[in-house]
Amino acid sequence: MNITAHTRQSTGTPATRRLGVIAVALLVTLAFFGLWFSPEDINQGSTVRIMYVHVPTIWVAYMAFVLTAVCSAVYVSGRDRSLAWDRVAGASAEIGVLFVAFSLVTGSLWGRITWGTYWVWDARLTSTAFLFITYIGYLAVRRLGGTMRQRARRSAVLALLAVLEIPLVHFSVRLWRSLHQEASVATGGTDVELDGLMLFSLFLGLVAFTVTFVWLLLHRQRMLWLEDAMSAQGLDAAIEARRQEAVR
Amino acid sequence: METVINLSHVVAVLGGFPALAGIDFSVQRGEIVLLQGPNGAGKTSLLRVCAGLLPIERGSGTVLGIDIATQREDIRSRVGFLGHANGLYLDLTVRQNVNFWAATVGADDAEIASAMSRMKVDGRLADVKASQLSAGQRRRTALASLIVRRAEIWLLDEPHAGLDAAGRDEIDGILRDAVASGATVVLASHESERASGLANRIVTVDGGGAR
Amino acid sequence: MAVSSRRSVATAVARKDLLVEWNSKILMNQVAPFAAIVMVMFAFALDNDGILQRVAPGLVWLATLFSMLVVVQRSFAVETADGALDALRVAGVDPAAIFAGKAVALMVQLLALEAMLVATAVVLYGVEMSLVGLGQVVVTMVAATVGLGAVGTLYGGLAAGVKGRETLLPLLLLPVVAPVLIGATRATEAGFGSGGTDVSEGWPWIILLVVFAVIFSAVGSVAFGPLVDE
């Protein structure tokens, strides 16, 4: 692994710079639509505007975790797969966790402003919290050390286990909450009546955050590549030093 | 003669440190190879790589024809490894330990009894908990467990450590018998005097490489 | 070289684990008292007989899960103390067999613990069960414990050994066992009759527990090898 060809100041390329500009433009447009152009909700007034951030971020987080799962599946499916699959899986999970956190916080604020509570034990919110913790665990396991291949294999297996476990958790929680006949008042978004402009803004939010996610992913996985390359170079130096021990 | 171990430019890493720094190493069937070298030279790591326990970062190699880069799990059932740790369950007695290891390989009672008596861990010692044994006694128990495995390659890290003269003679006898029945032995030892009598080839390991 | 069938290896591993427990009596002398104390502390904290009786199922399973963390750690501490798991791996013993053996041993120990906890709930929290209810509680225990044994062994293996890993176990394990906590508690509520729950309401939850157990037993035997390996 030779990183000398990549000794720039950043992980950016002309492509990512263009992508970044598009992302910013979309986010600004979203701000306009979300904060201004789109109408207020009949019941909630202006607080419904949080939805344009809260809902797309959780969708993008789901996408991120699906990507992690797919890359992990590809990695374990063959004997000698490229570590790039592992790096993308890891970067995607990191960003996914960020987006889930963001969604949980905005959802909590929304609940607080609109209905007076920071948290409600409804099925979706509880499952989302579990999703968050599960992937925090995944990220912790990624940091356990060892060779890159060990890290990759361990993480991949764990990610696939998460794919199994999350629907189980979600299903159990759904069953559990259905016992309590929760009114879906505070579920955040499902009972808001969406007119055309609101729907459009929501869709815009999805596009804007997806583009942002891709931009973040490209940068982050490049960072991970650089980290791996650096430790490989560090290894070269260490090997030389080790060989010197023997030469007398 | 068949080459049972063949490593080429192997780099193996322990927590970022290159324990093996591009080592070349090969062993023919039926040899008894002694690994010599200072502490920290990489002897233990070399043995672990050959056992399929330690993954390699760079280089290539085969053990019994099996590729250590991609298939090292398959090596293990054909190889017997004894590291610094004895692999004992400290809450179990000697007999219970050896019985367990024998059960995992399907050895029968006669083999167990014979292995235990060769290593002098039958009789009074058999029902002592492993935690109460001396270092030498634990070593002998571990060796008894290894004997019942009848592996094709024996990889031993300081097998003589903690044993008295009689124990060491016994091990040497066992290793010679194993080779006579077609096994190959690689051992790391500081006991250069004794071990050079036993071995037909000496390899010096230093700075993660071999000479 | 002699090779054993997977079943006999798993049996040997399970026997070995239970023998270690028999010789050391850690479960009996340390974990069970810990679990009992947890139940007592719940009473101190909740300070209300009516509430205690109502939430007894939840407390039983919470105490089980907390104790399980200790039992799983112990199960693997035994393996790493003298490099035994290493030796098992290098002997080429089928990881699926190791998984099965350790999971079964873990299940047996957890079942014993749960039985004690249910008895403690009856004594301390004033729980009263019908015979059918008791039968349902037993079925719940078995169904839940198979799942817990599988998942505990799987993640316990991952968290074993290397320093700094042990604290990882709760973080990894507790989210995964959430379905078991939910299912077992609801089923036990039905068995105990807490808050007027009828026995018939428990059976669907038991099905959830069985599904969990089947999935993780199957997946665990495949995933254990890669997770434990260096």
Descriptive notes:
The complex is a heterotrimer of chains A (248), B (211) and C (230). Chain A is an all-alpha fold and 248 residues long. Chain A is 75% helix and 0% strand. Chain A contains 6 helices and no strands. The model of chain A is unreliable at 183-190 (pLDDT under 50). Chain B is an alpha/beta fold and 211 residues long. The longest helix of chain B is centred in the last third of the chain and has 16 residues, at 165-180. The model of chain B has no long low-confidence stretch (mean pLDDT 87). Chain C is mainly alpha-helical. Helices cover 82% and strands 0% of the residues of chain C. Chain C contains 9 helices and no strands. In chain C, helix 5 (95-125) packs across helix 6. Chain C is globular, with a radius of gyration of 18 Å. The chains are: A mainly alpha (248), B alpha/beta (211), C mainly alpha (230). The interface between A and B is medium-sized, with 18 and 16 residues.
- The proportion of strand residues of chain A reads under 5%
Tally of helical segments of chain B? 7
| Global mean pLDDT of chain B | 87
Question: Could you describe the largest sheet of chain A, including whether it forms a barrel?
Answer: none
Tell me the overall shape of chain A: globular
Structural class of chain A: mainly alpha
Shape of chain B: globular
Largest interface: B-C, 41 and 32 residues
The percent range for helix content of chain A is over 70%
- Number of DSSP strand runs of chain B: 10
The structural class of chain B is: alpha/beta
Cα separation of the termini of chain A? 30 Å
Low-confidence parts of chain A: 183-190
Compute the CA-based radius of gyration of chain A.
22 Å
Percent range for β-strand residues of chain B: 25-35%
Radius of gyration of chain B: 17 Å
Low-confidence stretches of chain B: none
